[in-house]
Amino acid sequence: MATINIISISAFLIVFLIGYSESEVQDLHTFNQVTNKFAWDLYKEVKQPSGNTIVSPIALQLLLAILLQCTNGTTAAEIANVLQHKADDKSILNAYKHILQMKNNKNEINTFKSAAAIVVDQSFPLLEVNHIEEDLNEYLQAEILRQNFKGNPENSRSGINSWVHDYSGGEIRTILPEGSIDASTEAVMISAAVFKGAWKQKFDKKNTKIESFQIQPNVSVNVKMMGLTGGRFRYAWNSKFGAQIVELPYSEEEFRMIVILPETGLSELETKLTHENLFELINSVKETNVDIFLPRFKAKKSIKLVNVLKKMGMVTAFSRHADFSKMTNSSIAVSSVIQRAMIMVNEKGTRAAAASGIIISAKTLPPQMVCNSPFMYLILKGDTILFIGNFLKPLPS
């Protein structure tokens, strides 16, 4: 039986162009393009016809960008190719720098916060000649922390999980499962992000009713369907894609959720979509009177991403040929890539969070629009995808 399949794209990309030079605006435009292409490629790889899946491409992108700064040769080229840009692209790094400097929105109603770190063993020989610590901090705001992986791996794992819990606002309790850290672990790259957004026009709880949600042609379940009637929203029926689209703004209007409801079936729509024509679909909306009925929903999931990244073209980093010579002279490789994320949508707004981890070990280890049927949704800030997913079936309360 089909269940929710959600991609949560962690909101690292807050683009506010006032005060930017023309070259900086162009850098951010290019950055949005490569980011959204990476997001869509990842979405296609991890989405499933059934089962709960939630992943944050932008949080993963940040960690891969950190990883990229530590690698050379084929290892770096493959990571850069997956990220859709060159390994030594300073304009992309500058875009990261500008965006991450503004990443924390201090509005108490609409908040977004993010953080990243590299945690290395206290005996790890981090090269200083390449100024890796300064570059990671300047461009990617990644701090470098020390733990005693070899002497006390379980305590180190607990410390990393506490870091994730704190920086995700308590939404993600753990990122590293038992046994994931041992004496062979040399470094762990981690990131965390949390987004909270209140609707500009809230759904009145009095209008929420139990309604039928069709998960398959002959299978339906009951959901708590929220209703918002008599409002004006940016909406369209797009005949080319056979879908309805609506934009639901948050109270800080740079943030928005896009809901895409196909007429025939979600899988058929997804086969038509690319990262380019996705925005053709999104930009077809115009302000009009529309009644919206959207299920209250939530999803959370842990996912292992090594095989996904290999399919996307990042292979050498997991092998004995991994080249981390910009970071260290030690013989190391990526052994695990893990992510946990959650999203909750209700009458008040949206709460979403994600945490990601990359474990690096010694190379000796193996490497009226009624949404009553499956729909796709996105949360955007400007034209940057923050979260993207589809809703197939609700989780039990």
Give a quick precis of the structure.
With 397 residues, the protein is α+β, with helices and mostly antiparallel strands. The chain has helices spanning 22-46, 57-68, 73-82, 90-101, 132-140, 153-167, 266-272, 275-282, 306-312, and strands spanning 5-7, 111-121, 142-147, 185-198, 209-216, 219-238, 243-249, 255-262, 286-295, 297-304, 332-345, 349-362, 369-370, 375-381, 384-391.
Provide the helix percentage. 25-40%
Shape: globular
The radius of gyration over CA amounts to 21 Å
Helix and strand content put the structural class at alpha+beta
Element order: H for helix, E for strand:
EHHHHEHEHEEEEEHHEEHEEEEE
Structure annotation, total helices: 9
Number of strands: 15
* Termini separation: 17 Å
Strand content: 35-45%
Q: Runs with pLDDT <50, length 5+?
A: 1-18
pLDDT averaged residue by residue: 84
The biggest sheet amounts to:
9 strands, mixed
Oligomer: single chain
